[in-house]
Amino acid sequence: MDTATSFALIAPELLLAVSSLLLVLAAAWGGDKAARPVTILAVSALFGAGLLLWPVLHLGKVGPETWAFGDLLRADAFAGFAKALIYLAAIGCLVVTPSWFDRMKAMKPEYPVLVLLATLGMSLMVSASDLLTLYLGLELNSLAAYVLAAYLRNDSKSAEAGLKYFVLGALASGILLYGMSLLYGFTGTTSFAGIREALSGEMSNGMLFGVIFVLAGLAFKIAAVPFHMWTPDVYEGAPTPVTTFFATAPKVAAVALTARVALDAFGGQVDAWRQVVIFAALASIVVGALGAIGQNNLKRLLAYSSINNVGFILIGLAAASVAGASAMFVYLAIYVAMSLGSFVALMMLHDEDGRALETFDDIAGLSTKRPALAWCLLALMFSLAGIPPLLGFWGKFVVFQAAVEANLVALAAIGIAASVIGAFYYIKFIKVMFFDAASPATVADSTRAHWAVLGITTLIVSPLGYFLTRSFGDLGDKAASALFLLP
Amino acid sequence: MIQTIAFYLFAVLMIASAVFVITARNPVHSVLWLILAFFNAAGLMVLVGAEFIAMLLVIVYVGAVAVLFLFVVMMLDIDFAELRAGFIKNFPLGIAIAMVLLAELVLGIGAYQAGALQLGTPDGLAAPMADRSNIESLGALMYGRYLILFEVAGMILLVAMVGAIVLTHRPPKSARASQNISRQVARRPEDAVVMKQPTVGQGVEL
């Protein structure tokens, strides 16, 4: 494969890289005045990169024709699906950001540039088919994320979030690198295809340690229990637009990367990692559900909710089948819509002075003050809880169906039982908004951009979203078959 | 024979100094032990015939990173008077470490002259080196097969730079007094001058 073809395959990444370089220059010369134009340009770059994905998504390409640079990167249907989700989530986050930061006069043109660079890293992560690409993509994404978490540098909570995220993220990278070095030592190759081949026979202890360490490092990045401890603090401390970003795009990238590593590189040794994934899935569901109950801060609560959701996604991975992977991607798409919507709703909750309303006491009786916002939140919370007419139910349904088909009935049963615990705090949200006496705090008007994103995500999770299930399922199947190298 | 002796010397010293890095109570000593550990790692690399990596270790780690560490350590709150008080007491130790480094240098060069260590590989045969130096081989890999990853590493460094500036840069307050003519012209006497009638025994309140 010649270099030109390779470059054509990574066209979306090239577009993101070139536009972020140009926007760095624009930010350097334009100063703070350039913040809004740079944001608009960054959104259009993401949109353009998304359009470049169309052929891959439409044709559902798999196999060697999608391998770039001698199988360092794979621009197949799976990567295309994940990238489309990531770009959409990043666009949603960027659209709602400027007006939030303008309230504290903190919007700088570097913000959209960092988001673009993080998105470039995520693009590389989901198309990685070599440990080196995996690591570099992950670091590009993480490094930008650390800076974003500490973005409000004069706010002690934001600085704390950045520092915690950096220290624990560095630890996770260390664990991941150690696992990768073991794998390289015992298999003699860094490419996923080579590792798969080397692992196909008898597995030595060193290989097993490598597999476990790599999975542990990835579990840190997707915030699965027992490597979830950073999530509540970082999500609470980081500025809300940044939290919105963390809960959506990087989550998709890390989950997709985990799926690719588990099913492609370690695909020949499913039994070696299945118990690990099953444990992480169940522990995430239970800890995510129980941990959220005592929380009064809404951002912390949604952080636990994201841990809980990662558990359900991992159930799809534990099935280790085409149906399981496809269910995972469908759940991921629905999860992105739900968490984008609920965090944007949190961003809209602030009083006239710009103080954020982020505890249960603040939103008491919201339905009398801002009925439209309260009803949107109601739809999102019922959907997160998985109550039937809303789309969240369908996501849980396909995941559990895949688990049952893979003879993991016990796992599915425990998962369903634990999701009932999770329903408690989602419904508490609704009880506080609709049935409690109104709090004295007033809720200020929100900008059109916030309403637009909230409206779109609410429409997706509403029963109308079932019209999307066919195309979601279709794309999910194509992506899953790309992962299993089926034509 | 000389290679084996050199190997054990470097390896033992490296592990010992790595232990001292984490047990030393004084951070400056920690950094100095770290430098010794890096030197020994470089020695090991020379022994296996990877001269380029050895040079990188010395130049990048000892030269740049260790100096950077020292800067950071200097910013910590350390009582330097107390440190200097121990100078005479620690002088023999310092001389001893310097002698160790000198001996290693001689031994390392000697071992290198005697040819690279024969590495044990699973099948007992080391892969034959292509007919070029290992700098050339590394360059061919980095700018050929792994070109795209090399570029991505560049992007990561860019993110680090942008991030450092975003988190620390504050708009500069100009050191020189700057003249704003329109402000000077717009200044009116009533804004600038206050008339006071101080009574005897009372201060003036401005």
Beta-strand percentage of chain A? under 5%
Q: Whole-number average pLDDT of chain B?
A: 79
How large is the share of residues in beta strands of chain B?
Answer: under 5%
- Strand tally of chain B is 0
Strand order of the largest sheet of chain A: 1-2
The outline of chain A comes out as globular
What's the main sheet of chain B like?
A: none
Q: Biggest chain pair contact, residues each?
A: A-B, 32 and 18 residues
| Secondary-structure element string of chain A | HHHHEEHHHHHHHHHHHHHHHHH
Strand segment tally of chain A: 2
If you average the pLDDT of chain A, what whole number results? 89
Spans of chain A with pLDDT under 50 lasting ≥5 residues?
none
Number of helices of chain B: 9
Q: Secondary-structure element order of chain B, as H and E?
A: HHHHHHHHH
Offer a concise description of the structure:
The complex is a heterodimer of chains A (487) and B (206). Helix content of chain A is 76%, strand content 1%.
